[in-house]
User: Fold this.
Amino acid sequence: MKAVVYREYAPDDDYAKILKVEDIDSPKPKPDEVVFTNKASALNYNDIWGMRGVPIPVPVPHVSGSDVAGDVIAVGEDVQGFKVGDRVVSHSNLACRVCSDCTSGREFDCTRRQVWGFQTGPLWGAYSEEVHLPEVNVSKIPEGVSYDDAAAASMTILTSWHMLVGRAKITPGQTVLIMGGGSGVGSFGIQIAKLYNCDVIATASPDKLEKCKELGADYAVDHRKDDWHKEVRGITKEIAKKKGGAPGIDLSFDHIGETHFNKQLTLLKYGATLVSCGATTGYDAKIDLRHIFFKGINVLGSTQGTKAELDQGLYWMGQGKIKAAVDSVYSFEQAAEAHTKMLSGKFFGKILMKPEGA
Ligand SMILES: [Zn+2]
Assistant:
């Protein structure tokens, strides 16, 4: 079968030099595994880290990719919940399922956890015509949800759902700030907050503001402006006039980090929460701690989520309440181009990649 393979790193981001479509062996299922086709797979930033060989030297030869949707074509003898023909999507969090963190329902805290397609290999990731995963790492796709949307959603909706629902305990009617609403996690963040009937203010670059509103954001603010936070403050005053209470943000959803972190803290109400899953602009934020202790702010970290949370997100996609934002679709042969586009940041939602004929 065909797969997108690299055998050396590209610290200079010259992906065309290393990414080749090669023939590799088709997978045979282990007793607990499901084998399924790749009808659509989605790019994630960990593909870039993998190709750079930092922060960890991923196993080579490497097949990258953590999100994939397709049809089951074989199951191992111990598999109970799937049969040939089922439409499925990957859950890329390979946890041990045995340790006290896993058995406490916190598989994302498992110290033996690996992200499939990033830390795994050699030659074990989503960008191949057929993939194999343990049954516990596979979810059924609800009727009405396409392969494209399921692949675009998997790791991203899981991350957003866990941040807002699992960690920050979002409640109806809150005023929610979604930083970077044009990204994959941001676009789901907007929709999950609207599912909870919250007032949603999204930030994005100017070209993405309208799309944030199309996804349901009540307000969209250009976060490239120095005084973006003043505009958000003004909006929260409007919302407070309507709802009563103090102006400000109840819940801030962050993955931008350094450049915008402290200004988010200034916008938070007393007792409010900031939940963070990343730091795309850098991790070295300068923080005025008075915002945290004086206002009693909760700062929560969040990484991935549980398979149950993925299933909840998929359920609401099946109900038509949340949709995936797909920016563009590339073939395996165009893998370098697809990843270069992701590096540019000039896209909205997810970039997909498919084998020929999928
Ligand atoms: Zn574990």
